[in-house]
Amino acid sequence: MSEAAEQPAIERSAWPGVAWAVRRDLRLALRSKAELGVQLLFYAVIVTLFPLGVGADPALLRALGPGVLWVAALLASLLSLPRLFAADFADGTLEQIALSPYPLPALISGKILAHWLTTGVPLVVLSPLLALQFGLDSSELVALAAGLLLGTPTLSLLGAIGAALTLGLRAGGALLALLVLPLYVPILIFGAGTVEAMRAGLGAGGELSVLGAALLAAAIGAPLASAAAVRIALD
Amino acid sequence: MSFHSINWFRFASPASFFPVAAKLARWFAVLAVPLAAAGLWLGLVVAPTDAQQGDAYRIIFIHVPAAWMSMFIYLVMAAWCAVSLTLNARLSAMMAQALAPTGALFTVIALWTGALWGKPAWGTYWAWDARMTSELILLFLYLGYMALRHAIDDVRRADRASAVLALVGAVNVPIIYFSVQWWNTLHQGATVSLTAAPKMASIMLIALMLMTFAAWFYAIAVAMVRVRAIILERERRTSWAGTLAGAAR
Predict the structure, then answer these.
(1) Does B155 touch chain A if contact means CB atoms closer than 8 Å?
(2) For the CA atoms of chain B, what is the radius of gyration?
(3) Which of B144, B152, B156 comes nearest A178 by C-beta?
(4) How far lies B194's CA from each of B65, B191, B197, B198, B199, in Å?
(5) Inter-chain residue contact B168 with A182, CB threshold 8 Å
(6) In sequence order, what E strands does chain A have?
């Protein structure tokens, strides 16, 4: 209670905090474009491995395509998660961010949004091109891209919780995968399900609605949980 | 002694809970053994052979209690985590830590017995059905919780970080529970429910209930034994634990 009394009575709204964090993280990301390129290349390489591994039978590839693209998206998202907090944690910036008068969940929302803009969006843009290699037709390409567009921000949001929980830990990478991938599973199921639903003639509306609902729920809950986890890591 | 005359928060202290846990462990173990014996006898010997499934169905007397306990223990664990985060209570975090291995064990038993039953009944050990997949995710959540605890050296940080993870993962439990209603995949709907008349012979239901309570009391007894070990390990530098160790020596 005493801490609250000592703070000046300035009501800081959340939105400038979000905007500041987005601008800062975008600027930082754009100054290391090569790193972003490597993430995208990782996605493309993972996707390319599957036809080489399972054989180039067009019918098989068409059946596997959506799942392969989604699994690769999950792995690419997982690989990019340490970018969210690790560097800021290592040089003490995260501590300063946590001390700022803006609400910490707002600043973290901004960081997550910037993370999605720099890692999720390029992946969504690239996915139709990769899906063509698997012989998906145009309506399926649209369903896949729409699913990724709604699903990848949820991946960034859920992943932020795991990234914050594993800050500064030994064996952080493998542990992060164990914590985050189970949380990703529902997104994977419904994301790959969009294309399956298109093929079954049902339309992708149901799956896309579930992905949208998951995005809304994660957008509210994940920044709060990540903020709690960051404060625990900084203690 | 009336309910209000006991100071319940006294038991939030590990030192005063330590002897209580010993008593609870003993009594729940004493209750669990005859319940399990009676349940197994009723289920494996007395209950009639099923008209469609033959004797293979008898594995439900293990499978269903284990599956219920796997979800129930996760919820209890998440509740202790919520208490430990909000009230910053050490013992609550220790309770959650003590429950996790038992919950993981019941999850493995539920998956394993389900696979053994699935082979004669469905013709396959495993299918990527909604309920099995979500139960498998539950196992990963338990393992993730334990792995995160082990990775953090500072105990208090481990308490709080794993509590956040357990609470986030709690979203999965209702998904498992309602999966057979939401997705009409391979796993059948619930046979036992509180609101509808049971769809099985009453002798089977009694055996199932006995096994459920046996599993429940076993879980409590084991968690109490484990929480005693955790308390001693963490409080080893305190004077009361030192006195205890001295008396034992």
Answers:
(1) no
(2) 20
(3) B144
(4) 15, 10, 8, 8, 12
(5) no
(6) none
**CB burial readout B123-145, b (16+ within 10 A) else e:** eeeebebbbbbbbbbbbbbbbbb
Query: Which of B137, B151, B168 is closest, CB to CB, to A225?
Result: B168
Nearest to A165 among B137, B148, B175 (CB): B148
Instruction: Determine the residue among A108, A154, A183, A188 to mutate to test chain B binding: the one whose Cβ has the most chain B Cβ atoms within 10 Å.
Output: A183
Give tens-digit pLDDT for A124-162. 999 999 998 888 888 889 999 999 999 999 999 999 999
Low pLDDT (below 70) residues in chain B? 1-6, 8, 51, 179-200, 248-249
User: For an interface test with A, which of B145, B148, B154, B183 has the most A Cβ atoms less than 10 Å from its Cβ?
Assistant: B148
- At B35, which amino acid appears? L
pLDDT of residue B18: 87
DSSP letters, A73-140, are: HHHHHHHHTHHHHHHHHHTTHHHHHHHSSS-HHHHHHHHHHHHIIIIIHHHHHHHHHHHHTTT--HHH
CA A35-A221-B130 angle, 5° bins: 90
* Cβ-proximal residues to B187 (8 Å cutoff; 6+ apart), any chain: B129, B130, B131, B132, B179, B180
**Helix H or strand E segment including B99:** helix B90-122
Any A CB within 8 A of B146 CB = no
Q: What is the average pLDDT score of chain A?
A: 88
Neighbouring-strand partners of residue B50: B54
What is the rounded average pLDDT of the residues A55-81? 89
**What's the pLDDT at A1?**
42
B133 touches chain A (CB under 8 A): yes
| Per-residue confidence (pLDDT) for residue B182, from 0 to 100 | 65
The label of the residue with tokens 């293979």 reads B56
10 Å Cβ neighbour count for B14?
22
Per-residue pLDDT band for A2 (boundaries 50, 70, 90) equals very low
Task: Dump pLDDT digits (tens) for A179-210.
Answer: 999 899 889 988 888 888 888 877 778 889 99
User: A220 touching B, CB under 8 A?
Assistant: no
Q: How far apart are CA B129 and CA A97, in angstroms?
A: 44
Look-up: residue for tokens 């209570």? Answer: B89
